[in-house]
Amino acid sequence: MTILATGPSASATAPAEGKGVGPLLRAWRERCRVSQLELALRADSSARHISFIETGRSRPSEEMVLRLAEHLDVPVRERNSLLLAAGYAPRYPETPLDDPSLDALRDGMERLIQGYEPYPALVVDAGYTVVAANRGIAMLLEGVPEKLMSPAPNAMRLTLHPEGMAPRIRNLREWRGHLLSQMERQIALQRSDQLRALYEEVAAYPLPEGAQDDEPAGPAVYFALPLRIEHDGRILSFVSSISTFNTPMDVTVAELAIETFLPADPATAKYLHTVAG
């Protein structure tokens, strides 16, 4: 398992040209479907003051920008953009993942995903670049061509590319729809040309010839949408869980996500332990 150094994130953004902080805050408020009065109550302010900020009649303090961003659940990178638009310096640094100051973080992620073996687990950034993966993921990627693995593997390309894992996914239409919906939600929160380009690329991949969602053999009751994938002649079923860091103070850390795949049935769990043994 390797932690890869990362450059600028695929979600890198800048304040929209010609827009002050007021219109940006209004857009975030409307996206969250929160009224000016409700936001004011949350932020210990007044609806009149929120209205003045949004229309540009009042310049919010740095503390107010951060307070409103917190109550609107604005991503950390976008909080920097709001501060810049309001005339303040960015508050949150963006530290390269290979920086010595993040040694403890990298070590913790390594221990976490290695401890999850034999079940698959990986770490991705905001652009779905794989920055770490365990042996369970390596098993699922067996047979994927090297051109999809370098220079930096991307989880969406690896999964949906017709030469990647897609031909072995037995519920590809369902799983593809789930992944594309996940990307759409992320794009709605981040003004990222790179992420939108990735979405358009993977959404345009052709489905493997004859692809259709197979029905599970025998009785199967899943508590979440499973990933059903063939490995060495067997159909393995997983449900995934995504974890992020609580209250991150760094853009890089805020945009990391740890995805773990839990066996969705006893047969899959037994097979993984047998292979790992």
Blueprint of the fold:
Elements: H1 21-31, H2 36-42, H3 47-55, H4 62-71, H5 76-85, H6 103-115, E1 121-124, E2 130-133, H7 135-140, H8 155-160, H9 172-189, H10 193-203, E3 227-231, E4 234-243, H11 251-254, E5 257-263, H12 266-276
Helix pairs in contact: 1-3, 2-3, 9-10
Task: Describe, in plain words, how this protein is organized in 3D.
- This protein is α+β, with helices and mostly antiparallel strands and 277 residues long.
- It folds into 2 domains: 21-85, lambda repressor-like DNA-binding domains (434 Repressor (Amino-terminal Domain)), CATH 1.10.260; 100-276, Beta-Lactamase.
- Helices cover 42% and strands 11% of the residues.
- The protein has 12 helices and 5 strands.
- A 5-stranded antiparallel sheet has the order 2-1-5-4-3.
- Strand 3 (227-231) and strand 4 form a beta hairpin.
- Helix 9 (172-189) runs antiparallel to helix 10.
- Residues 1-20 are annotated as: Disordered.
- GO terms for molecular function: DNA binding.
- This is XRE family transcriptional regulator.
Strand arrangement, largest sheet? 2-1-5-4-3
Q: Quaternary arrangement of the chains shown?
A: single chain
Q: Residue ranges: pLDDT <50 for 5 or more in a row?
A: 1-18
Structural class: alpha+beta
- The CATH topology of the largest domain turns out to be Beta-Lactamase
What is the H/E order?
Answer: HHHHHHEEHHHHEEHEH
Query: Could you tell me how far the N terminus lies from the C terminus, measured between alpha carbons in angstroms?
Result: 18 Å
Provide the CATH top-level class of the largest domain: Alpha Beta
The CATH architecture term of the largest domain is 2-Layer Sandwich
Radius of gyration over all CA atoms, rounded: 21 Å
The DSSP helix count reads 12
InterPro entries: Cro/C1-type_HTH, Lambda_DNA-bd_dom_sf, MLTR_LBD
Region (Disordered): 1-20
Biased composition (Low complexity): 1-18
Domain HTH cro/C1-type: 25-79
